[in-house]
Each structure stands twice: as C-alpha cells, then as structure tokens.
Amino acid sequence: MSLGDEPGYPDTGHTRTRLPESDPYGGASRRGGRSSSRSLVTVVGVVVLLIAAIAFANRGGDGDSSSATGNGGSGSGGQPTTSSTAASGTKPVETKSGEGIPTGFAHSSQGAQSAAANYSVALGSTDMFVMAKRHALVNTIYAPDVAASRQAGLDSAYSSAKFLTNIGLNNDGSAPVGETFVSRVIPVGTKVTASSTDAATVAVWYTSLFGLSGAASTNPVTESWYTTTYELTWVDNDWKITDFQQKDGPVPVGRDQQASTADDMTRAVEEFGGFTYAR
Description:
Helix content is 28%, strand content 22%. By secondary structure, the chain is of the alpha+beta class. The strands form two sheets. The protein has a four-stranded antiparallel β-sheet. A two-stranded antiparallel ribbon has the order 1-2. Strand 1 and strand 2 form a beta hairpin. Helix 1 packs antiparallel against helix 4 (144-158) and helix 3 (131-141) runs antiparallel to helix 4 (144-158). The longest helix has 22 residues, at 36-57. It is globular.
C-alpha cells in the first residue's frame, strides 16, 4: 500500500492520508456512528478474509517454493539481473482463450514470466467471483492434472455466503445495486527463481485494488501489495500453473495524496480498462 514521508513525523514511519471532504464512500455528508479505528478493522478484516480464502482454496502445496533449485535470470549472489523485468523484445502472444486470457506463451524463461504475470491478473479479477467464469478461468490456466481439485477448493472459498457477505457482495458474487465491485491486479515486476526445460518457478510482485465503490459502500476500494510465486509446468504447448504461494509486500512508501470520492473511483473503473497482457 502507499505510505508516505510526512513533515512532522521525522524518522517515525508514521504517515497521514488525506481524505476527501466527504468520508469515502459516504456521499455528500459524513456518516456518523463509525469510528476510524472500527473502519480500519473492517478493511483489514476484508483483506485478511480474501487472503484466507485463496489460501484455503490452494492449500496442500508441497513446501516453500524458495527451496527450489536453480536461479534462472539471476546475477551474482542469486539476485535477479535487471533483464529479468526489462522489455524482452519478444512479440506478445496474439492468441486468447474464450475468457480473454492470453495463451500460447513462448517455451522460454520470458514466456514463463509473461504467463505468470497474466495469470496473476486473471486470478485477481472479478471473474473469480462468478462460478461459470471461474470454472473457465481455472481450466485455462491450471495444469489439467490439478485443475479439478483446484476448482473444487476455489468453489468452496468463493461461493461461501459468509465470505461474500463480509466483503459486501450478493450471494451470486455480484455487487449490490448502486455499487461497483473492484478487484484488479497490476503486475509491477517478475523474476524467475528456478527453471528447467519444462518447469519454472516465477515470482510476481504486484499491487491489488479491492473493494466496493459506491455512496453506500462500507468497504471502499483499498490498495494492497503482494508477491505471489507460481509453480509452472510446460503442458499442451503452454505454461500452466500447478501451485502458488502468496506473501505480503514489498510495500512502497506512499505519498500524501487525497483519497478519491466514490464517484471518481467508479468512473475510473468504468473508463480505464484493465491490462490483458503483461510483459
């Protein structure tokens, strides 16, 4: 999340966030009866719940991906070189699945990174909250031998009435009338931590926007930062996910910027399409 240096807080790490004149997303008048600490607890609870759902759906992984051997795309001391996230010059893939997910990635380190970045976007999208779209998405990006089990776990997590209620959605995964559901992942960088001919471990660092935009929303859109490490295998002439693990950060220091109103946020979501091809 964005946190910034602020005059008056030397060397303490404390920051201020300037909010608009009306409380996001309280409309023209500020709502009473809800303290800032309670609002913070609500937001944190939503984020933790989402992470828990994903962790539940993907539990059963065998060990930490950091234990994998190899350091594809690394420089001295095992650190990634600048080329790991530089423009590759490779022509972007032109084929897409019926769900609009890029497919047909190159059988190379760069292709694995492209696949992981694009799969991050798909897994972090609002489509994950709609059963039919979620099923199609999982069958597209997961390896065939794990897709069925992953689908069952994801269905259990994302179809939970309690989970959907806590994040403010209807039981079918849709947003309440008058509100816009925002769930987007924006990759910042990738690196290969291990690779072989038909397997790769790729870490994707990204920022995530999540919440409900609308005058009545009690879960306004917030920003988070994560790194997800994907285990990929080469199957059916493409890179597919076999497992992944997520952790917080790295989180940059943000600036003292005024939070946008619900109307501005909704307008931005409607007018700015998300990226469908990364790297």
